[in-house]
Specification:
The protein has 404 residues and is of the alpha/beta class. 34% of the residues lie in helices and 25% in strands. It has two domains: 176 residues, 3-Layer(aba) Sandwich (Rossmann fold), CATH 3.40.50.1950; 197 residues, CoaB-like (Rossmann fold). α13 links the parallel β16 and β17. α4 packs across α6. The radius of gyration is 25 Å and the shape is elongated. The two termini are 34 Å apart. The relative contact order is 0.09. The structure holds cytidine-5'-triphosphate.
């Protein structure tokens, strides 16, 4: 049965990084993909196909000859499997399988499917660095790129031969992200999108600061979804523990003023673009930054902090873009605890937004640090749409579908 997210065929070849393919499969299953596996005979000596069968609930394709040996009709032909896949990803890909595919050989299940499948293709190489950097391997990889194979480059790391170097398979989350991106519709192809996320941090002294409550999850999900939809994406983020989504241009900031500087720089660089302000910008900052740590003083158990307002970044960037003749499509968020809709409508007008995504942060099941969100979208003409409760990635996709 086809899944809502798509069908992914994983080709597994015999590298010591083979266990990473299990992790990628489990991530893809969690994200809602249907997954099937084909392995080379040598790979099946490393990990039994039974393990992959248990993970995917599906028969693993290892031997071409099995197609003809089909007493119970449970075997799937390589052509049917090739057609079933939306994405064919080879994880891990040895120098041998890369060389075979680059030269049109098809004498094992993986190289055979690479030739037979018209799906989008991704290769995650994993091998010793000398083998990877060898000009023959590099030439094979270049050849595959020419034939529209996407390569997720290996990274520096520990290698099986007890050395360190380039050739360590890419991060499993990055591989899953790259597969998800390949399977997405490219509705924002070529668009430039800037997303702000997370809190800003306003320092009081070298060890203290004030900040806003924000995990960054909503903004990071929007940045990831925008990459999946084919946009160039810059993510400007305050401090967050989240993993940088694969494929974004990532900028780390602390204060609201730093966020404003980066926004202006990127807007000037991009020209006409979409800006999605998901960050929880601190409205106030200490009037004075104390260079030395503020000490407790005997006889005085109070500390009075004078706060001043930060600029409204959305207003500032709209003004800046206007001066530069740049067209912005600006989307804001309204995190409210009461009078959700009334406040959201006021913010659209005040900040010059196309629409605002409003959520009620007084609820525990959605909002801060949760994986789900239930939002309403309020447009500048006053119309409103209520979206059902969804995970934040799906909310992000819905927000991006409303961008013109
Ligand atoms: N925002 C901004 N600059 C600020 C504060 C907020 O650009 N100094 C942006 C946020 O990123 C969000 C939107 O404005 O997209 C609304 O943020 P919110 O905190 O709900 O509103 P405020 O403007 O701060 O108003 P208030 O706190 O009084 O509700």
């Amino acid at each position: 049965m086809a899944s809502k997210k798509g069908n992914v065929l994983i080709g597994v070849s015999a590298s010591i990084a083979i266990y990473k393919s299990l992790e990628v499969i489990s991530l893809l299953k969690k994200r809602g993909f249907s997954v099937k596996v084909a392995m080379t005979r040598e790979a099946s000596d490393f990990i039994s196909p039974v393990v992959f069968e248990a993970l995917t609930n599906s028969r693993v394709y290892v031997d071409v000859l099995e197609e003809f040996d089909n007493p119970d009709d449970t075997n799937i032909t390589h052509i049917a499997l090739a057609k079933w896949a939306d994405v064919f990803a080879i994880i891990p890909a040895t120098s041998n399988i890369i060389a075979k595919i680059a030269n049109g050989l098809s004498d094992d299940a993986v190289s055979l499917l690479a030739l037979a499948s018209e799906a989008k293709k991704l290769i995650a190489p994993a091998m010793n660095s000398s083998m990877y950097l060898n000009p023959i391997t590099q030439e094979n990889i270049e050849k595959l790129k020419k034939y529209e194979f996407h390569i997720i480059e290996p990274v520096e790391g520990d290698l099986a031969c007890n050395t360190k170097g380039v050739g360590h398979i890419a991060d499993v989350c990055d591989i899953a992200d790259a597969i998800e991106s390949l399977s997405s519709e490219k509705i924002l192809f070529g668009k430039k999108v800037i997303v702000t996320a997370g809190p800003t941090v306003e320092s009081i002294d070298p060890v203290r600061f004030i900040t806003n409550k924000s995990s960054g999850k909503m903004g990071y999900a929007i940045a990831k979804a925008a990459v999946d939809f084919g946009a160039y994406v810059t993510l400007i983020s305050g401090p967050s523990n989240l993993r940088k989504p694969f494929g974004v241009d990532f900028v780390n900031i602390n204060s609201a003023y730093e966020m404003l500087d980066e926004l202006k720089k990127r807007i000037e660089n991009y020209g006409d673009c979409v800006v999605i302000m998901a960050a929880a910008v601190s409205d106030f900052k200490p009037k004075r930054y104390e260079k030395l740590k503020i000490k407790k003083r005997s006889g005085n158990d109070k500390l009075v902090l004078e706060l001043i307002q930060n600029p409204d970044l959305t207003k500032e960037i709209n003004r800046f873009a206007k001066e530069k003749g740049i067209k912005l499509f600006t989307v804001g968020f309204a995190a409210e605890t009461d009078n959700l809709l009334k406040n959201a409508i006021e913010k659209i007008k005040k900040k010059g937004l196309e629409f605002i995504v409003a959520n009620d942060v007084s609820r525990n099941d959605i909002g801060f640090n949760t994986d789900e969100n239930e939002v309403s979208i309020i447009y500048k003409d006053g119309s409103m749409e209520r979206l059902p409760k969804m995970n934040k990635y799906d909310v992000a996709c819905e927000i991006l579908r409303r961008i013109e």
